[in-house]
Write a structure and sequence with these properties.
- The chain is α+β, with helices and mostly antiparallel strands.
- It has a domain of 130 residues.
- The chain has seven helices and four strands; from the N terminus they run ββααααβααβα.
- It has a two-stranded antiparallel sheet. A two-stranded antiparallel sheet has the order 3-4.
- Helix 3 packs antiparallel against helix 5.
- It is elongated.
Length: 191
Amino acid sequence: MTKLKITDLTEEKTFYHRERDAFGNRTAEPYQAAVKRKVQTVQGWKRFGHYLIDLVILYTINFGIGFVFAAIDPYTASKVPDLTWNGVSMLITGIYYFSVEAAMGTSIGKLVTNSVVIDEYGDKPDNATLLGRSFARIIPFEALSCLGERGWHDTLSKTYVVTKTEHETLKRLIAEQSGGFRVDERSDILD
């Protein structure tokens, strides 16, 4: 049995047949149809907030490493080329995102806004996916890609950033639509 992807989930929506009756009046007859459900990803200012919080943490880590290195050997630290420091900073960025998302399923910035990273099946991504996602962040101008619906590090790794509430909804819908269980909303079965 193949797993159901979150992009394959459906939901019932009400649509209307618009017609004219015998007297020429417009009528609208409702009907239900199943349509693809759009994944409610975290976007906009909330996503920018994740970035800013994580950026402050990354600057703090980078500054701390530079400070320790300079305290150990100030002469050598001053002779290290900027390109080397930039490479170290990129490595720290990848390690930071990979380690916190592998451990907690979210970064510190996402934790503050109650958001999580999931894969296309609604699960926590595996470590290989998280590693690719983390190092995709060092692509030049990648942060600007988050101004859209999903960032490059999301699309390249086939991951999504969603709220915990949306994640619970997706898990429930996957279970219902894959035949795992069916939610019965009748109140009389509880009596």
